[in-house]
Amino acid sequence: MTQFVSDGKTEEYVLVIKDKKKFPWWILLFLLPLLLLIPIKRSVHVQLLDSTGQPAAQQNCGFHYPDISTFGAKSPVDLQLTTDNSAKFDIEGISQPLWYVLFGGSVDSAFVNSESGCQSVYFGDKFKNYPENDYKVLKMNGSFADKTIKVIDAETKLPLENAEVKFYDQVLTTDNQGLVAAQFDLCNDISVTASKKGYVSGNFSDKVSNISTDVITIPLSKISYDKVVKVIDAETRNPIAGAKVKFNGKDYTTDSKGQIKIKINAVEDINLEASKAGYITETLKTTVDEVGDIIEIPLKKDVETKTIKVIDADTKKPLPGAVVKHNGKNYTADNNGVVTISIPKNSNVNLEASKEGYNNAVVNRKVSEPLLEVPLKKKGQDNINDLRGKTGELKINIQWYCHADLDLQVVDPCGNTLSADKRNTSCRGGNGVFDLDANVTYTDYRGKYDPKAQKHVNNPQENAYWSKATKGVYTIRVVRYHSHDISRTAPVKFNVTVVDLGTRHEFPGTIKSQNDSIYSFKYEVK
């Protein structure tokens, strides 16, 4: 009790003091275990990389983790997942108690590629809750297979050197055997691309586990182009029909347009050879990049120069101003009676010589010598007065100017040969007679040449005639049978005259030596 004095009075009061209650901290000891039992939700985001560090091909994966109960009991959870196009997958709502998290509990997981049989990938983490954009990147520890890639030509089956081979992020080049070595991850499908200039790219795709051979062969087909080869005359630009073209070991013949069609491979050089009788053979070497759809090959005529000398048939003197008509063109002889013409090699000289006051002379035959003399007979004279032997519708006469023995032989359209050995022939109503032989070679009784028996003249002639001539082609041959008293290597000039129904045609020629003993040409009776 407490006493207070106020105004002389004394009063008594009772003061009661209560004790403050303390917080029951002991209650927390009961609550804390309950808090540790609160479940925590976790999210896991995973991206799988292959052994090269690139996003793995789409995988069928098994994901394993333990489901932890409130009191720590583990129940395994197995999920079958398929990664997306970025090789990612997400696991949401993994529930584990807080105490398991605080005491370092981890998410144990394994990824198994069920298709390729890859090795497992272990994943463990301290309950880290990955944000939505934060991915756990795992590199797959797969098995590997060593393979050899061989690139070949699809047609020839030969290896292709320096071909480019691409797979994963690698670019390799084949050796001289067309080979490259490669190592493939069994956890992934493979796609290999092979390419080479001039070839269509080739591809190979499969599961590595399906490849049973050690060598993967990729054939490449050549890129080819259709081309037209046209052979033309270099001067006129006109197409040349019947020309021969060689390409890739094959022979072609141009059509009426001077063309052939060929198929050209882009990887090969173009080597062409074009030829035609009367033209110089040409070769063309080029590439596909340098030509268009039509490849032109111009051919130059293979020509030789001939000197034509027009002379008086009697005096043998030159006739200046004489006109020589050849291939539609007229040439005028100079003061020496000479004109120069060009003709395709090994072809006939086809010309007509004329001069006022003289009969025309026609030449149509092969001429081996560079100088050809064309004699003209004056008008008003007997057109065949200088020719010995008889005459009919057709008369063929040869004359020369030395002791050599030249023989005239004529094969008629029926194939009969008229000569000194066979003096009468018959062909479809036409009868041929050989009536004049000259500078005959005589032999003794033993068949040997007898110089004393020879009776030779310096202006010999041989003659054959047909009272009625069969139409067709006659082959006229001049044979150098014996040289007698002249050198065997000395040339012998001669002149064949054909009188066809009164029209005279001259065919001068030369036999160069005894070894070059036959001179032949054709004449057609129309």
Task: Please characterize this protein's 3D structure.
By secondary structure, the chain is an all-beta fold. The chain has two helices and 40 strands. It is rod-shaped.
Ordered list of secondary-structure elements with their pairings:
Blueprint: E1 2-6, E2 9-13, H1 28-36, E3 39-49, E4 60-68, E5 74-82, E6 88-97, H2 98-102, E7 109-111, E8 121-123, E9 136-139, E10 144-153, E11 164-167, E12 170-173, E13 179-185, E14 189-195, E15 202-207, E16 215-220, E17 224-233, E18 244-247, E19 250-253, E20 259-265, E21 270-275, E22 282-286, E23 294-299, E24 303-312, E25 323-326, E26 329-332, E27 338-344, E28 348-354, E29 361-366, E30 371-376, E31 394-400, E32 405-411, E33 417-418, E34 424-427, E35 430-436, E36 461-466, E37 472-482, E38 492-500, E39 503-511, E40 518-525
Parallel strand pairs: 3-9, 10-16, 17-23, 24-30
Antiparallel strand pairs: 1-2, 3-6, 4-5, 7-8, 10-13, 11-12, 11-14, 14-15, 17-20, 18-19, 18-21, 21-22, 24-27, 25-26, 25-28, 28-29, 31-36, 31-38, 32-33, 32-37, 34-35, 35-36, 37-40, 38-39
What does this entry show, briefly?
The chain has 526 residues and is mainly beta.
